[in-house]
């Protein structure tokens, strides 16, 4: 059988009819005609990963008697059998049914999406990419540097989505990631490092041209090298309470772990409890919970050049831009269609009106779950980084996570960073190594008192967020300004 | 035995590569996986995946390139395209500053001993029925909510290279069961885990009995908040496996040792690292592990000693680290190892372990672990499921969330007793491809001077 999309589409639609005829209330399918990846790693200048990946197949879901069944296959001549599997899975699940899943009113949609790209990375010769990365590696060489790691990662996907409501979505996904890191042992023998990952100010396009723009990647090689030597000469951050200024390179993880994950509706409803964990947020808190200070404005945003922007989610809902936290108050969460009714029933009132367009799957062989998209903090009105430093009496500026430990309900956290700059009386004074800080989520966000303006706002990507069973690795984005938090516990008592 | 159609296809791929003068390694992976997820005491998701994957690596001199395919691998065109892609990547590659090692199947392996056709086709209904039985028996007894997951399936792996005509084939089934009971008001959690390689190894009654044995202590007593400082801890299987993994990560990877990033970096073989009761091996012949007979450079995997009676005996070198640092590869070009912490001389049974411990914290699970300073072997992690306070050899109260921040050398040097009975601890994940992995660990390990760094007022 010819497995081109022209043949797959009618075959899938026939199956939808058959599934609805078998008593299903909903069915959908994602056909990945192409899921290409390229992974390049230079470790101390040696090309240790030089791989091209290609995946192709179909994943289908059916909803019967309020229970989900999922099945996936790479055998595109066996689509009917794949639907049979999904149906059998749903029937088995219905034998121990909880709150019945319900897609709500039908939302038939037809759409296309293509991300903004100038140069498709898969059209660039490997030799050109390797030369570019090797030049970065060479510039990281230094007698103070013990190990160097330079990586690039590209993804290109052609995904067709259809469902039994008549929705048809045809989209491309294209993502570009890059990272560089230098490491060395300090005088105590402890490994220290300094790194940068490909980022941006949120403007521009997300093809190969992004990686080669020196502002957002290669141009930082000299800086991380010289900052590593400062770290190696530095003392450890002494413990104490002080103000903490997070650069976007650290702020993105703070948002990811203590806002993003906590606001995933499946976690809030308890469906991730035995694996990823729960949330300190309960459904009835949506609309009223004070999550942070008045300065906190957080949204699920649509940023053109980000891995968290995908046009339509894996239920065919067009990605929306909406507030999650408005002037410190929790107003919405990350959701997909099927969990809205349960959230509202558990809250005893309508707390979520429409899908948060966050249903995302990592591959054709994984079922969509609630995922972060671009979880951004809106820029504030407190000036530049220098303005915020000038206003700080006793604090530290922190950048880039090294370690993190977060409570299973995201209610408290402990982070270690690569570097700290001490701030005394409005001036950066010196560098400290081994900086850490910790806190309780709501108290910490309540202490947010300065939010930098648009000049401080940076888009960081997360290529490897893990969640779900079977496990899924997802890519997403965070647009974050410089933020200051008051009176935070920092450093470790020996 | 590997299916003829696929075997012929892959061997024809090898022949084509030889004809073109290409050095190529072919690694085939096929899985049939199914998983059900329990949430809010109901089945939240039921999945089934049938996937075939082919990884080809090509090496010419110091250049290496590879290509991976996850699709329907039934046509020689598809295989040819993947081989061409790997060859093209190799051609454009940068040469390494060392001589890479090319894969070669040491001896032909054809191993289907761990395959159970019943487990391969274990139905989602059977899983749902078992979960339903446990929920039905226990849910009326308190404000309990149940969650968990149950994955089962089969994995086939086949590896050949152009270096010789040998073939390495493995087919096995595995199952990993987890069920968590959470009390909704006080928020404590109990868990029951099971590992299996065939069906019928456990029943709902066993799970109900295990929960029931834990419930009275948790129901009748309020949480125990221990003191910060060094204390005696009785570790259970999941925590021991976690400690073992953290200890191996920080200290026994050849690359990190060579780069002086391992906590063993200043040691040489023969040095005393740990207490004499500690012996650590990677042993595919142990009955508690899934036992991978070869790795993906073609090495035959045999018992490999890392620590013997406390003495430093070995480091893990995959072929990349071995080539770079001019060492022999040790059969570790794979992600699913078979680590074994040998049983000790302690009396058999948890009851005996409790009597021996007298007053201690019982921590059978460690969660949210990470390594803040790997160069010292420092790790941190928190208690979660089934943790209790022991007094005079009896459980007296459930333990509030307790954080341990210590070093691997310190924990493995402060051994009081290690049980003489071993159990299997499933460590499989479902990221990317199915890769069954288990460890064999003693059912308990009693340690003194474990550093408690944080205690919460909640579970
Ligand atoms: Zn994450």
From TrEMBL, chain A:
Keyword annotations from UniProtKB, A to Z: Hydrolase, Metalloprotease, Protease
Top-rank taxon, per record: Bacteria
Transmembrane segments: none
Domain Metalloprotease TldD/E N-terminal: 32-90
Residue intervals of the Metalloprotease TldD/E central domain: 120-208
Metalloprotease TldD/E C-terminal domain boundaries: 240-489
Statement: the UniProt record of this protein carries the keyword Protease: yes
GO molecular function, one term: metallopeptidase activity
InterPro entries per record: Metalloprtase-TldD/E_C, Metalloprtase-TldD/E_cen_dom, Metalloprtase-TldD/E_N, Peptidase_U62_metallo, TldD/PmbA_N, TldD/PmbA_sf
Biological processes per GO annotation: proteolysis
GO CC terms: cytosol
Pfam families, per database record: PmbA_TldD_1st (PF01523), PmbA_TldD_2nd (PF19290), PmbA_TldD_3rd (PF19289)
PANTHER family: CONSERVED PROTEIN, UNCHARACTERIZED PROTEIN TLDD AND PMBA
Family (UniProt): Belongs to the peptidase U62 family.
Protein name as it appears in the record: Peptidase C69
Organism annotation: candidate division WOR-3 bacterium JGI_Cruoil_03_51_56
């Amino acid at each position: 059988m010819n497995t081109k999309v022209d043949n797959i589409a009618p075959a899938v639609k026939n199956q939808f009819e058959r599934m609805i005829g078998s008593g299903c209330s909903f069915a959908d399918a994602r056909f990945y005609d192409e899921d290409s990846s390229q992974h390049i790693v230079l470790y101390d200048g040696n090309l240790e990963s030089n791989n091209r990946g290609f995946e192709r197949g179909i994943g289908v879901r059916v909803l019967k008697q309020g229970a989900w069944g999922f099945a996936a296959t790479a055998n595109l001549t066996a689509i009917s059998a794949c639907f049979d599997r999904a149906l059998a899975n749903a029937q088995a699940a219905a034998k121990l049914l909880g709150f019945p899943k319900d897609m709500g009113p039908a939302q038939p949609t037809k759409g296309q999406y293509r991300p903004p790209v100038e140069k498709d990375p898969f059209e660039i010769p490997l030799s050109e990419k390797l030369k570019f990365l090797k030049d970065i590696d060479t510039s990281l060489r230094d007698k103070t540097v013990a190990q160097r790691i330079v990586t690039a990662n590209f993804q290109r996907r052609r995904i067709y989505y259809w469902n039994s409501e008549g929705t048809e979505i045809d989209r491309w996904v294209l993502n570009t990631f890059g990272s560089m890191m230098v490491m060395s042992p300090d005088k105590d023998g402890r490994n220290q490092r300094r790194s940068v990952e490909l980022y941006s100010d949120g403007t521009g396009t997300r093809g190969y041209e992004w990686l080669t723009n020196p502002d957002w990647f290669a141009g930082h090689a000299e800086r991380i090298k010289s900052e590593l030597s400062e770290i190696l000469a530095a003392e450890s951050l002494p413990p104490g309470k002080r103000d903490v200024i997070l650069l976007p390179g650290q702020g993105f993880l703070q948002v990811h772990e203590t806002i993003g994950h906590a606001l995933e509706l499946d976690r809030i409803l308890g469906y991730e409890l035995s694996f990823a964990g729960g949330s300190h947020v309960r459904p009835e808190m949506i609309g009223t919970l004070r999550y942070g200070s008045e300065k906190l404005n957080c949204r699920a945003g649509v940023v053109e050049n980000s891995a968290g922007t995908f046009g339509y989610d894996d239920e065919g809902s067009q990605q929306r831009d909406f507030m999650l936290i408005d002037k410190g108050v929790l107003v919405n969460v990350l959701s997909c269609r099927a969990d809205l009714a349960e959230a509202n029933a558990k809250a005893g009132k309508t707390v979520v009106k429409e899908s948060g367009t966050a249903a995302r799957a990592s591959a054709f062989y994984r079922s969509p779950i609630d995922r972060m998209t671009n979880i951004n903090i809106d820029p504030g009105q407190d000036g530049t980084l220098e303005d915020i430093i000038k206003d700080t009496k006793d604090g530290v500026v922190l950048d880039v996570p090294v370690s993190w430990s977060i409570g299973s309900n995201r209610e408290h956290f402990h982070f270690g960073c690569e570097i700290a700059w001490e701030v005394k009386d409005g001036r950066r004074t010196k560098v400290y190594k081994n900086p850490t800080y910790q806190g309780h989520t709501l108290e910490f966000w309540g202490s947010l008192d300065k939010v930098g303006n648009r000049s401080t706002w940076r888009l960081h990507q997360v290529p490897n967020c893990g969640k779900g069973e079977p496990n899924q690795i997802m890519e997403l984005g965070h647009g974050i300004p410089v933020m200051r938090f008051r009176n935070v516990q920092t450093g470790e008592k020996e | 035995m590997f299916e003829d159609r696929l075997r012929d296809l892959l061997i024809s791929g090898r022949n084509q590569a030889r004809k073109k003068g290409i050095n190529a390694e072919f690694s085939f992976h096929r899985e049939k996986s199914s998983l059900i997820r329990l949430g809010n005491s109901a089945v939240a998701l039921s999945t089934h995946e049938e996937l075939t994957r082919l990884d080809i690596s090509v090496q010419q001199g110091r250049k290496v390139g590879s290509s991976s395919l996850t699709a329907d691998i039934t046509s020689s065109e598809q295989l040819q395209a993947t081989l061409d892609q790997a060859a093209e990547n190799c051609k454009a590659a940068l040469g390494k500053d060392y001589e890479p090692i090319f894969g070669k199947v040491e001896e032909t392996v054809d191993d289907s001993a761990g395959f159970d056709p019943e487990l391969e086709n274990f139905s989602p209904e059977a899983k749902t029925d078992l979960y339903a039985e446990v929920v039905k028996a226990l849910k009326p007894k308190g404000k309990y909510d149940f969650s968990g997951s149950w994955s089962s399936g089969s994995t086939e792996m086949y590896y050949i290279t152009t270096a010789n005509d040998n073939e390495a084939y493995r087919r096995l089934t595995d199952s990993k069961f987890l069920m968590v009971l959470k009390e909704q008001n006080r928020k404590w959690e109990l868990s029951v885990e099971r590992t299996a390689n065939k069906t019928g190894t456990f029943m709902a009654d066993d799970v109900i009995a295990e929960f029931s044995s834990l419930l009275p202590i948790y129901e009748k007593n309020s949480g125990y908040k221990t003191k910060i400082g060094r204390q005696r801890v009785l570790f259970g299987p999941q925590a021991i496996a976690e400690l073992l993994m953290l200890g191996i990560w920080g200290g026994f990877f050849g690359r990190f040792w060579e780069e002086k990033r391992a906590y063993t970096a200043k040691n040489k073989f023969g040095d005393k690292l740990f207490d004499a009761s500690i012996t650590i091996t990677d042993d595919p012949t142990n009955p508690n592990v899934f036992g991978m007979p070869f790795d993906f450079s073609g090495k035959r995997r045999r018992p490999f000693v890392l620590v013997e009676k406390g003495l430093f005996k070995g480091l893990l070198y995959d072929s990349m680290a071995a080539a770079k640092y001019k060492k022999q590869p040790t059969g570790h070009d794979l992600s699913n190892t078979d680590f074994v912490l040998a049983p000790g001389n302690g009396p058999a049974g948890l009851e005996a372990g409790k009597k021996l411990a007298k007053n201690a914290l019982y921590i059978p699970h460690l969660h949210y672990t990470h390594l803040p300073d790997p160069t010292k072997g420092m790790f941190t992690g928190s208690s979660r499921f089934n943790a209790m306070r022991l007094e005079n050899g009896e459980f007296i109260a459930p333990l509030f969330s307790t954080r341990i921040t210590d070093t691997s050398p310190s924990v493995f040097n402060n051994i009081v007793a290690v049980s003489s009975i071993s159990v299997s601890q499933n460590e499989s994940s479902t990221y990317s491809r199915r890769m069954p992995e288990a460890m064999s660990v003693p059912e308990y390990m009693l340690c003194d001077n474990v550093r408690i760094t944080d205690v919460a007022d909640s579970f």
